[in-house]
Design brief:
With 127 residues, this protein is an alpha+beta fold. Helices cover 17% and strands 54% of the residues. The protein has one helix and seven strands.
């Protein structure tokens, strides 16, 4: 029994010392991975006479992709209208696009993707 307890303790200690080594980057530093923060929506630009969809993804400095998609409601179905996406490694990645839409009920979905995070948020508008 003492041998089993000793073996378990040794394995636990080895695991504790191995975890920090696995978190190190190639140059010896520790890479921090943060959660994702999303924001976006749709605004009317009077100077352009058009609606503008936009999104912003904020988090750790790592590769991230932001996708902004607009849908129009047709009964119980959301029909795809348009989308825009952008990738980058900065702490904040933003994108946007002017869209041509008519009156109706719209959903703007902002999606953010990193190596270890995924998130989406939807905004609803009546035009």
């Amino acid at each position: 029994m003492k041998k089993v307890v000793s073996l378990v303790l040794i394995v636990c200690m080895m695991t504790l010392f191995a975890v920090p080594a696995m978190a190190q980057t190639k140059d010896g530093g520790i890479q921090i991975r943060g959660s994702l923060s999303l924001r976006g929506g749709m605004v009317y630009d009077q100077s352009a006479g058009s609606y503008y969809i936009y999104g912003q993804c904020t988090g750790a400095v790592e590769i991230k992709t932001i996708i902004v998609t607009i849908y129009r409601q047709d009964g119980a179905v959301w029909d795809y209208v348009d989308s825009v996406q952008k990738s980058g490694t900065a702490s904040t990645v933003s994108t946007g696009k002017y869209v041509s839409i008519s009156s109706g009920y719209y959903k703007v979905k902002v999606t953010g993707i990193t190596q270890n995070s995924y998130g989406a948020i939807s905004y609803y508008y009546f035009v």
